[in-house]
Amino acid sequence: MRLLQPEQIAALRAPGAGGASRSEGLGEFSIGEVFCLYRHAECVPIRHTEHCFMLEFAIPYFLTQASPYEDILLKTVSGGRFIPKLEHRFLSIGRIETTGEVIELCDVSPKDWPKDTDGFAQAIRQALLTYYRSYPSANQYFYLYDSPVVKRLLDVIFGRMPEEITERYDIIPYPELAEPCSGFSLTSKRL
């Protein structure tokens, strides 16, 4: 369990959290701008009529703290090692409670997820694109899951991107990663 500071909660819940919000075509969701949560993490807030969520982008500890290089290596299904780019991020989706507690999506019962799963998935994708536009060099994303239900939801969100995204971006999944890790790279076709 993580707790946010009162100023972080206020910023995440504010209209246009972190900057101007965008909500075209997202139904009950709106997306804020990128802002720093901690020394090694940034987020993009996602406001919903009922809840506030955030897509968190964790910067590898290897870049911000004294940790061995081996810590960034990921296991593969063949028993080998996947070597990510130096500039990669680990994703997590959290629901922000009024108390400031951040509940990871893995810890939220599926019955408590937003009812509009298509709108939620679209909002998460838009938050990802918001981050990518700010940091196009950090274009490898990984996520961990701890249940088949969460893996299915994450695969719905990140696995098969809609045509309006694939027309503008190349998305390359990493099927060689061993469970409980999954990931992909995202690159603009205009670069």
Q: What is the structural class?
A: alpha+beta
Helix content: 10-25%
Assess the beta-strand content as a share of residues.
25-35%
Query: Total strand count, please?
Result: 12
Shape: globular
Secondary-structure element order, as H and E?
Answer: EHEEEEHEEEEHEHHEE
Total DSSP helices: 5
Q: Report the oligomer.
A: single chain
Could you describe the largest sheet, including whether it forms a barrel? 10 strands, mixed
Low-confidence stretches: none
CA distance, first residue to last residue: 39 Å
Radius of gyration: 16 Å
Q: How many domains in all?
A: 1
Query: On the 0-100 scale, what is the average pLDDT?
Result: 82
Describe the structure.
The mean pLDDT is 82. This protein is an alpha+beta fold. The chain has one domain (2-188). The radius of gyration is 16 Å and the shape is globular. It has helices at 6-13, 61-64, 117-134, 148-159, 163-166, and strands at residues 2-3, 29-31, 35-38, 41-48, 52-58, 74-75, 81-82, 88-96, 101-104, 140-144, 169-173, 181-188.
